[in-house]
Prior knowledge:
The chain is mainly alpha-helical.
Amino acid sequence: xxxxxxSKGSSPDQTRPTHLLSPSHRRDWRWPWRHxxxxxxxxxxxxxLVLETVTRDGQALEYASEALRDDLExxxxxVAEDGYALEFASEELRDDFDVIMTAVQQDGRALEFASxxxxxxxxxxxxxVGEDGHALEFAAIEIRENPEIxxxxIRRRGISFQYAxxxxxRDREFVLAAVQTNWDALVYAxxxxxxxxEIxxxxVxxxxxALEYASxxxxADPEIxxxxVRxxxxxxRHASKHFRRDRAFMLEAVRANGHVLRYAHEELRADQEFVLxxxxxxxxxxxxASEELRADRQVVMAAVQIDGYALEYASEELQRDRSxxxxxVREEGGALEFASPKLRKDWYTVLTAVEHNASALVYADWELRVDRxxxxxxxxxxxxxxxxxxxxxxxxxxEIAGASADQLLSSIQHRRGPELEFALSSLASLAQxxxxxxxxxxxxxxLLRCLTVNRxxxxxxxxxxxxxxxxxxxxxAMLFNVAQCASSGDExxxxxxxxxxxxxxxxxxxxxxxxxxxxRAGQRAAIILAIGLQEMLENPMGVExxxxxxxxxxxxxxxxxxxxxxxxAAGGGAEECRLAHLSMLDARVLLHAWFFCNGEGSETPSRAxxxxxxxxLRSGSGLCx
Length: 625
């Protein structure tokens, strides 16, 4: 448009706006639209304007006046934005070390425009090839003989080896180091070295495609080809054709990479004995068997018993075969996806699938997914099925939710890792709906044992603690139950795992929601927590942990003092008694005696009577009950 400034000799149809050029095109000297369109005319001899412009677009240096192209600050700003702008700098500045280093660090190929002296400077060239290995093309001849610089270029871009001196391309030790760094280097190694067994083996171990550039003898070497196949199945494409008919070799190759069967000769892919051996090594190879063998019951059965998902590659006839599909879903429930529509309506088949994988329910027929009786039977086999139920009403159904919780609770002690985490997640969902919170609260010991058994699994521990928190929000009995476990005696708690895990849960609850502890049961739980923290302080621990535990104990005691001040009152002229100052035995006596006198219907631990009968509550202890 009017007012736009074009470079000399250019016209609007020969130019392209800057925003249409990608950064790589802007730096590429082969791009035909190198000239820029500027949206306002400007004085290219004005230093401030040019400096501002080249800071945003280094290639704008092309339009600057001759004086400014010889200005160190302007040129440095240009090459810092686009190293290839060095092309337009003055000859004097192209021999300036700082300018060249700035340019090649931004774009290694800017070395092309450096002076002959700097193209022979090892530091400059090393910086250039470190940014772009192709910069080696513009280095001085003597620099291309430098092993360190050439190796740095190869590390950045393997095919830059083509610019190295012939002496290095013939040097066996150097070529070996080069292909270990980047397999592409083999392409430009001397011909005799592309037939060197050690070099080729190193290259194909790095990238299977390197076999394409190896000598004919190497492409016929079984060990070399197997090494390539282990790296990538496509390596067999570049091997000698006779391997595709070689039964022994192909069987070994399948053992290394099952997908290699796709390159086997048709005769082998139609050989039942060979394909049977292959699917026993890798069931996924069934997809590359001939059409006849994918309809062979013996072959398909062998595959789905190893990997149920292999049912995907079976013929339609076998996907309708009930015994084949049952074998597949027993191995992997998700294989139900590939069963025939008729079998996805079959109760027994679908129940077998969801027992092994709850998510298989999504592949069941719609009629089964909306059938309450079916869902009830399914959750009895796998409690997680409820997550995939079609209707929200099933999750709120007490009978279905209860059956789901029962199954999950009975299975968590046998699960580990992700399976356990999925089960805990499902239990948390059931607790959140509230219908099963009471049921889950009654199984607190089982959940506490789960917390103890998985004490080294941080993710699992966090999920169990979170589950306890959700249950407590819907079932007030949960706090009482956990507190009861925390106050259990050694004779009731072999190994102390129950008390330790319970105290940990109480700590988490106290830190997150002290409102839980405002009731009579909550006050009892707070006292038990204080006793547990005191017990922890009596054991060896780190300084930081001791400080945190002590601080928490003080907070708990302050809370108890506010909620139940009679516990901390002075008596008989004795000094004020703090629970943390008592022995463990006296503290437990305090706990049980207080609830014996003030429990108001709460269950009294049997040990309270024992302690009182033994006379362990002494008048001199300073306690007022």
